[in-house]
Amino acid sequence: MITLTTPPITPYGTDATLASLLGAIAARGQGFASCIDDTALLRDIQTYAAAVEGRYSDIVVLGIGGSALGARTIRNALVNPYQSTVPRLHVVDTIDPQLLQDLSHSLPLSSTLFLVISKSGHTTETLSQYCYFRHRLLAARLPLQEHMLFITDPLHGVLRPLAEAEGIRAFPIPPNVGGRFSVLTAVGLLPAALLGVDITAMLSGASAIRERFLSSSVAENTCYQYACVLHQQAEAGRNISVLMPYSKRLQTLGSWYAQLLAESTGKRTSAGQHVGLTPVAAMGPTDQHSQLQLYAEGPDDKQFTFLTIATQPLLPIMAEQHIPWQSHLSGVDFAQLLHAEYQATRDSLQELGRPVSTLTIPQLDARTLGALFFFLEGTVALLGEMLGINAFDQPGVERSKELTRQYLQRLH
Ligand code: PA5
């Protein structure tokens, strides 16, 4: 379902190397690979989505980081942005007062559902959004139980007791699934189901890739092969990793992946060494006209991955053969033009010795999107082990949170 072509690299490790990396990941007790088997949760989500179908015009995700990027990626990949279908999904991963005010003034509160999403249940940005919109709902005399829903850890964090105290329904996030690995839990699946996305297909795509990820055969495990490319190129000094989908609908996948790669790999090893790959979310062909010059002639510190979709809607350009400036486009459709631009960009970089990989999916739908999510998660998990770090924690962000709390205290 996902095909991978890579630059020539030094031989992949042996099956035994791969088996030991998979063993190391298993030993971390993470749930990102097993969470896709939760059929009870799948049923609960589908039942809830069916029960509220037609009830809400607007769904607002209040969350940040891994609690927001997945839902935005799914919406942007699978929903026609120009059709005014309801419900509309707004992903509010900000505390920008201007934006919050704009949103608040525009929302029809009586037909809005707020999904408050936080794994830890104590993220300041999300809790502040919750406070604000809770107040707005109460001021409008609307019942919180009908207009709010929580997605959070089953036991910890402040949202759990709040859910009980206020009678607000709460869906669980498995305790062993971290934020940036949670798109295939209720965090991504519930907003997706509310948008009418086929989440069973999404999970089945993920499950198909999981089979490869769990294989200790180097020849079968494409996550491992791709992780090897990322690792080897980083070791060779190219630790900036550009992901460039040739698809407007997959642009946000680049932002989702940027968080996954950056927060998972940017670490200090136990020996005190600083490691990590710096993600760049680009998009073709748009960034041919803004970034490509740097990619071609700038420092040789980058590796590139193109993401292409084999089958796209057939949309002829309608150029006229007899008009000279149009003749090279005549008989050509937009998918062919897009593909030619991808090939040309790829080849022009390769001619300059820049390392290029390509991921191709047969078409863009819920199944292939689920496959891509899992493929990238599996790759990053393996890459973490290759780098000798824990891909699943984020100790480096704690200090900033602590300082924020201190600065807020000074305001009292
Ligand atoms: O990947 C992570 O763990 C983080 O980026 C979180 O997703 C982010 O900090 C939001 O955390 P929470 O879901 O606990 O509110």
How does this structure look, described?
The longest helix is centred in the C-terminal third of the chain and has 22 residues, at 366-387. This protein has 2 domains: 3-28 and 202-395, Glucose-6-phosphate isomerase like protein, domain 1 (Rossmann fold), CATH 3.40.50; 35-197, Glucose-6-phosphate isomerase like protein, domain 1 (Rossmann fold), CATH 3.40.50. The protein has a 5-stranded mixed beta sheet, sandwiched between helices. Strands 3-2-4-5-6 form a 5-stranded parallel beta sheet, with helices on both faces. The chain has 412 residues and is of the alpha/beta class. It is built from 15 helices and 12 strands. The protein binds 5-phosphoarabinonic acid. 5-phosphoarabinonic acid binds next to loops. 5-phosphoarabinonic acid is lined by residues 64-67, 118-120, 123, 126, 178-180, 263, 394.
Please name the defining characteristics of this protein:
globular, alpha/beta, binds 5-phosphoarabinonic acid, Rossmann fold, 5-stranded mixed β-sheet, 412 residues, 5-stranded parallel β-sheet, 12 strands
